[in-house]
Design goal:
The protein is built from eleven helices and eleven strands. With about 425 residues, the protein is mostly helical. Strand 2 and strand 3 form a beta hairpin.
Length: about 425
């Protein structure tokens, strides 16, 4: 009986302890919920996978996400000259870079009008940082052009890559035959050795292909963009580009002690797949009356949609989530002369120095998420507001800019509210 009594007393004691622990834990959880911020809505963030991926595709996306965030050190082959130490350090939350996170490119205009990227001096991209004991690059005095570039957002790029060349060419109007002052042209660039054109999708122009990624549309595919970024931004070699960067001014070898290539093709393609399957930037408040009114002004009154075409259609894709989809990036993916104020005297491919690829406007209102809560606009972040970015538009965009000036203050606010909803 005494043993049974002790057992019951212990059981009751343990039960009381369990109930008391649960009560204290529930108080802690409730208290924490009062202080911790709620998770952001899906409509407020960029770094999510596109809907409709299969379980295996989602697993591959998450694997690429891990590689995208990897920080490289000297032991991994960083450098010897570089700009940053990881993909995510430039594209925070998969969004745009910050003016403190910039790329610098340079080159020289020859007397015959051709552009020299000055590869013999380490061009066209400057690597202003270096590993210990190795000097960083400097822009040579002979350079006549320098362009400061904020890294663009990487979301929705799979859909943009899936647009057939034929559709892009259908928007080109090099001779401005419709008389609207807009004469968009594709930027034809030399493909890298590893480029494999997709039959019926990529159209060759004397061995060159339409660039669609980067501020100057200098890359044809996401794979090319990723491969070049690993080498030019981080100094990491791969099976696609196996030779290390080195400082041409000192004329010595690589400077790092890790054998090349430092990344396998499978790792690079993993990051390619991750970027390819990121969702398109989400719309917000699209049913708001002022937003609807602002979109009408955008399209019908000031013709911003002459370059920033609202809807594109992807072609056939083996990823069903990208296969023949209507999507809304607000770009024609062409090059346009933006006037002297935005001319950096630097270029890539067949583009003029004053020409820029039409930047997709989707995600415009979420830019501050990756820029420390304050947005910066245009290729170099010089514009601190959307209105300031509009004012810098010259060249082919002059008519739209002037039309914006002539809007009433109320209509300007509607237009800006629409742009912030993208």
């Amino acid at each position: 009986m005494k043993i049974m009594k002790l057992y019951l007393q212990n059981s009751i004691f343990r039960l009381i302890l369990t109930l008391l622990s649960s009560f204290i834990l529930s108080i802690i959880i409730i208290s924490c919920e009062e202080f911790l911020p709620t998770a952001p809505e899906s409509s407020e963030i960029l770094n999510e996978p596109i809907e409709g991926l299969t379980p295996s595709q989602l697993a591959a996306h998450l694997q690429g996400d891990e590689q995208f965030g990897k920080i490289f050190g000297v032991e991994d082959g960083l450098g010897p000259i570089f700009v940053n130490t990881s993909c995510e350090n430039c594209h925070v939350a998969d969004g745009k870079g910050h003016p403190f996170i910039q790329l610098t490119r340079f080159g020289k205009m020859n007397l015959d009008g051709t552009f020299d990227p000055m590869t013999e001096y380490g061009g066209a991209q400057l690597q202003q940082r270096s590993i210990a004991g190795y000097p960083p690059e400097e822009i040579p005095a002979e350079a006549t052009g320098k362009s400061i570039l904020m890294p663009p957002s990487v979301t929705g790029l799979g859909l943009i890559e899936a647009v057939p060349d034929e559709l892009i060419l259908s928007y080109a109007d090099p001779d401005d035959l419709n008389g609207d002052g807009i004469s968009g042209v594709p930027n034809y660039v030399d493909p890298p050795d590893y480029f494999q054109p997709k039959p019926g999708f990529h159209i060759s122009n004397n061995g060159k292909y339409i660039g669609r990624f980067g501020r100057k549309a200098g890359a044809i595919t996401i794979l090319q963009q990723v491969t070049q970024a690993y080498l030019q931004d981080i100094g990491i070699t791969s099976d696609f580009l196996p030779e290390d960067l080195y400082n041409y001014i000192i004329g010595s070898g690589t400077g790092d002690k890790v054998s090349d290539p430092e990344l396998s093709a499978s790792v690079v393609k993993s990051v390619e797949f991750y970027i390819k399957t990121l969702k398109a930037p989400p719309r917000r408040n699209e049913n708001d009356a002022d937003v609807i009114g602002g979109e009408n002004i955008f399209k019908k009154q000031i013709n911003c949609s002459g370059c920033h075409i609202p809807t594109l259609v992807s072609g056939p894709s083996d990823i069903e989530a990208l296969n023949k989809k209507d999507f809304h990036p607000y770009t024609d993916m062409l090059m346009h002369d933006m006037g002297s104020q935005l001319d950096d005297y630097y270029t890539e491919g067949s583009a003029k120095t004053s020409e820029w690829r039409t930047t997709p406007l989707w995600g415009l209102g979420l830019g501050g998420t990756s820029q420390g809560g304050k947005s910066f606009f245009l290729h170099d972040g010089r514009a601190k507001t959307i209105e300031e970015a509009i004012i810098y538009h010259g060249g082919e965009a002059s008519n739209s800019r002037n039309n914006y000036y002539n809007l009433s203050q109320a209509d300007k606010q509607k237009l800006l509210k629409f742009l912030e909803s993208l």
